[in-house]
Amino acid sequence: MTNATVSAPFAESDFRVGRVLGRTATILSQHFVIFFLVAAVAALPTVLLIQRNADAMVGGTPSPDLFLMIGIGVVLAGVLGLLSQAVMLHAAFQAMRHRPVSLGDSLRVGLSRVLSILGLAIVMGVLLMLGFIALVIPMFILLTMWWVATPACVVERTGPWTSLKRSAALTKGHRWKVFGLILLLFIVNLIVTQILEVVLLLVGSDILSILARLFWGAIYGAFNAIAVVMAYHDLRVAKEGVDIEQIASVFD
User: What residue segments make up the domains of the chain, in order of their start?
Assistant: First the structure.
């Protein structure tokens, strides 16, 4: 794929789910090791929590320290998840620009915006929870509107509320497609996860369970993170006519 192919502007109606998925798969395959490692580190606390909870269920009464471990694990998983999103976002943009993908450079960019992303996650999480309480449907509407808020926060260096408004503006006119993309990724993850759980139940090995869950968690986490970046890029190109160099110049 040439630079012209990657950055050429196209009409607003040309935002396509297939394009996002195809380019996501290409970027992930080209730099698989880096994306996989970053996503695996982010997924590890969640995988260990799942395994620990499964062991506690088998053992009967949970130990007193289980809830403390769960609390620590949830916080750690959240922080690592946010940082990994920012790291993979920078790496994805570098790959789209056909520039070297450096884990050190991407980590530096991620750390520089981690507090802003944390604030965004808190605001977004609270509002999504309120949407869930309000008959569930508003939550899905808000999730669709705000799906590219993280890239906006990192690339455009905006605060939490501005990032949400920016994402809402970018997704306007394309929200059914964005929702379809979110739903497709969710369904694939659900199917694979359920199949994996059945297989692991038959195998009965804790080590294999951890490794298998970690492998799939890393694959899905990396693919989902890159897909968000691709959607953000394509929405900006479609609505604003900018190219990849204009969008990613903030990283130079």
Answer: 20-113+171-251
